Each structure stands twice: as C-alpha cells, then as structure tokens.
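Continuing the batch. This is chain 6 of the set; chains 1 through 5 are on the previous pages. Same settings as before, nothing changed between runs. Recording input and output for traceability.
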Amino acid sequence: MARLISLTGTEAALIALLFVLFRRTGSSRWVAAALLVTFGTQGLLTPLAGLLGDRFDRRRLMIASELLGAACFAALALARAPAPLLALAFLATVAETPFFPAASAAVPNIVPAGDLAWANSTIAFGSNVGYLVGPALGGVLVAAVGAPAVFLFNSATFIVSALLVVSVKGTFSHQRTEEESYRGVRAGVRFMMSEPTLRTMMVAFAVFAVSIGSVLVAELPLAASFGTGSIGYGLMATMFGVGALAGSLTGRFLTESNERRFLVACSFVTAAGFGSVALAPAFWFVLLAMLVSGASDGLVDVAVEVIYQRLSPDAVRSRVMAALESVFLLGLAVSFLFAGPLIDALGAKAAYALAGAGCTITAVILVPLLHRGAATAP
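Output for chain 6:
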C-alpha cells in the first residue's frame, strides 16, 4: 500500500513537472534535463543509498526518506521558475533514492523464504498500480487544479506512505555479524560481480536498460504516426501497465524450481513483444504488443527481485539491490542520449526494433542460468 500510494503521487508529480517545464520554457531540452536529473541522479546515488540501508535501521531510513521527499515536493509547490523547479526535483530525487534498496532488502527479513515470490509479487502489484494510475491522475489534476496542487498531493502521499511503514510489524534487518566482510559503498558491486548468477543477470539487464530506454522517447511519436495522438499515447502506457499488473500477480506462483525458466522464457516474450511493434500494421497491434510485453516484463521483475534477495546476505543486501538498480537507471540515462537522434533519423519504429534486439540479447545472456542450480545466500 505504501508503494501504491507513494508511486501514484510521484508519477503524477513527474507528469506535472514535465508539463510545467515545457509550458514555461517551450523547450524539450528542459524536459530532457528533468528526466536526466531524476533517472541519472538515482543511478549515481543508489549505491550510496544501498550503503545506508545496510548500515542503519531500514525501517527508520525508509520513513526518513519519505518525510524528506514530502518536504521537497511541498517546496516544489512554491517554485515558479524552471531552474528552481529542476533544483528541487534533484533534491526530491536524492531524498527518495534510499527507499527502494532498503525496502527490497527488508523483504526477506519480514517473510519466510518460501513466501519471497508472493511478497515481491504483492509489492510489485502495488508499484504497478501506481505506475498505471499516477500519470493519468497527474494529467487530470494538472488540468483541473494546476501543477502546485499536484506537488502538494504528492507530498501528502509520501507522509501516508511513511505512516504505513511505521505500522509494519517485524524486524527489517538481521543482526549484522558479517559486516566486516562487506565494507564500503562498492561491497554490493563486488558481491554481485563475484556471484555467477547475479553477475550474469547484471550484464543481461544492463543491455536491457540501454536498449529499452529509447522506447520511452518513441511512444508519443509512434502514436502520432498512427494518427492517434495523445489518446493513443495514453492507451499504450495503459496497456503496458495492465499487462505489468497481471505479470506481477502471476509472479506469486514462482518457486525456486521454476523461477529461472520463467525469467528466461518471459525475457524472450518481452523481446518479441517490443520487436513486433516495428512491424505493426495497425495501432490495435501495437496495443496488443504492449499488453503482452507488460505482462512478461512484470513477471520478470518479480523473478529478478526474488533471485537477488535469495542470493544476497543480509549484511550487504541493500547494496546489492542498489547496485542492480543503479546499473538499470544509468543504462536508461545512456539510452536517452541517443534516443532522440535515432528516432529523428529512422522513425519511432526503429526504437522498438532496437528494443526487440536488445531484449533478445538479454534473454540469450540469461539462458546459462537454466543449467545452474538454485542457491541461497552464504
């Protein structure tokens, strides 16, 4: 519920931020700058955030992160000029960054090992509802009450999220008897690179992030090319989001014996879904492809979380989760740098062809995992 409420507000606020920056500047460069400030900053700071999650009480860290985020978005409601808006968006991103690695690392402390798939599926469902509802809500609220009100709404969602975290019963971390073995910000990266399964998955999803980011830039031009405009653009995001909801719920049926098979198989399905858009004869085909891609990607997300949590010791788990998240976010940031020229030169469908090829490479990289037995953290 905390993820559902907070991410709904955050996605709505991001829409409001992008809208107000474009309206006040008339420049897409400010929009690109806002995306780089959010995704890029998260990518750079997530490893440090992971260190905080392993060093301090994860519950308190999550609460502090949400409350600081609430303060930043309340301040955003008072800003008017583009530069202060961007600066406060940067501070809000800094405040938010510690939440994910701490929350993900805490899941194995709260639930039995056999319930990890169910727990991550439940959390992913809440997150995907937020990703689905937030943008639409943001667009409606900006039109109805203005961007400052959306920022205040998001501030309130952060406070509610913090209160929900306070209400959770249980211990968010074990006694850290192994801390001396995992010192420093880079301990998560070192562990991830030393563990064969985690290393393989990291390489695979680095390729995935670099190839998939251009799709985010291509969605609106693709909808325009089919003559569907903003309605089509919204429908594409909605169909992917609905698929992701279904995939995340299906993830609760993953087990140690089948999670790797589903990880690999669904990665191939995601590749086929995105790649097929490059050949789409009509817009209905695009929507169907987005639904299929969202469903397979939602299931992959749950499988990745479960495997990473299972293989990472508690003393370094936040930093390991942060390392993977950082690789993904930085990969997206890299993709934003070439997405515009690619789409301008070759058209929106070229981004989907790239995504299909990149996702296929991701799936091929993951295939060796099928021949490795499931393992647990040392």
